[in-house]
Design brief:
Blueprint lengths: L1 H11 L19 H10 L4 H18 L2 H11 L5 H15 L9 H13 L3 H17 L3 H18 L2 H16 L3 H8 L8 H22 L3 H15 L7 H18 L3 H14 L4 H17 L3 H16 L11 H12 L3 H25 L9 H18 L6 H38 L18 H15 L10 H7 L4 H12 L3 H19 L8 H7 L5 H12 L3 H14 L1
Amino acid sequence: MRYLVYILLFFGSLSALQAQSKLPQNLLSLGDEELLALFNEMDGDSIAQERVARTYLNRARKEKDTIKMARGYDRLARIFHHEKNIMFADSIIALTEDMKHITYPALGYIIKGNQFYLLGDLTKSTTAYLKAYEIAIEQENIQQQVFIMDLLIFAKSIWGNKNDALELQHRRFNILQSENYKNEIKKATRKGANIDIEQLFIEDEIVALENYIFCYMNLNKLDSVKVYFKRVYDKMDKYNWVNKDTHLNWLKLTELELHYRDRNYTKALNQADSILKAKEHDDFTLFNLFLFKGLANLELDNILKGIESLKSADSIVDNSEVLLRPFDRVLYEKLLSFYESTDSTEKRIEYLTKLIYLDSVFKIKYQYFDPQLIKNYETPLLLAEKEELINELQLKNKSANTSKWAIVGLLFFSTLGFFYYFKRQLIYKRRFEKLVVYSENGTNHKRGESSVQTKPSGELIENILSNLSDFERKREYLSPKISLGYLAKRFDTNSKYLSQVINLEKDKNFTQYINDLRVTYAFKELAANPTFRKFTIKAIANECGFKTGESFSRAFYKKFGIYPSYYLKSLEKKQSAN
């Protein structure tokens, strides 16, 4: 969460207050600064933000203004999935790497580091940050230096020497207190940007106090944490600019952890319940709420409630991109301990497997960031215990008088499986060849569907169909936020009526309609775009508006009769043959 706050501050606080507004029809009539301000106002609407950013970028290309082009790529690098954002960050770096500019290419490396971190690659992330820091020193950009120090403090406090992290925070704080710091902020600020320097400085001080809380929490010096909590809340009273809610949310979540570490378990539960009731939360926040709620309940001997909350936290990890820190290992330790007491062998194997995997990830991160701090997670012992449990489970399920039949059955089903696999691959191959013909002839392939002609209807139906046509032409269906309610609001109608029109005129329900548009786009883009074929299935799914690779694969198969992985391999073979 602390890391996410850093990123939000850097990419959000240098702009005007964010407030959702409607996108103007004629973007070309807006000036450069108006476009950049509008980009920030449309935060959360990636479709609108892309239109604004590309308008700015196209203008910069016509003017042959390299820095403006970098700003355009900079905005694009914030709104897509991680792999694509990295590609835009590389465009920033390639454009400006030979320039002596106060902002670029350092900002390109910062964005790249951010995206690698969110992908869980600490090595590439830190390498990019260190490169950005080196450039920021060369170009005397104090603001970038301070921001990158935040990220290094965060990483070192978790994966490295925690006392060194605190020392780095002392150095960062001294930079903020220097007489010339405000002038350095002004020097690094783009001309025309609407920045309240005084409020920005207060925010930098707030971040510094939050850093002290974070460092002392990781050192388990709770009295110092309490001192800095009082200071940061005093400072918050003077702050009335952007990201105030972000700071307050982080402080509330961190207070929850403080209550737990300080053994105030009832306070921790009350804090967790209070935060849960307040509003919608991101996956990382929910994970921490359920984790500490579960741990606090266990300490109060509310065992079943505690396990229920811990299982909710585990489910969030399984179904999201939450990145775990070393402290979070306690989640699997507690669940494993509980299932050992219930003699559930399958569950013990499940959580032992998760512990072993987590330890392997942690060791890689420790080894890169601070080799001497690699902990002995006793992975060999865990592996031995897992093997013993598997053997025990196999013995329970094994019967001496059925072993011979089991072997015969295995051979039979293996043979059957071979023929099934062979037949399925043959079917896939034929389907692929058919699809290639359809694609090359420009035929719109529909599997198991009949073409339905649009019949004359009322004015409202015609209006909805016109909006749907515009929606398809602009490829707005690629946004993951598209829903029946969202689209009905966009079309100034209601969800029920929009659904009826799609059912009647498109001969499918809303979900099928959106999924078909998305997989058809993927089908055509994969065939035409070699770069797109280099993406992972998950990245392709994200690019097309799906939340998971699994949902994308199912929709693709339902539409075309083959899975995207097979389609990709077949395209590559076809290209190699040519």
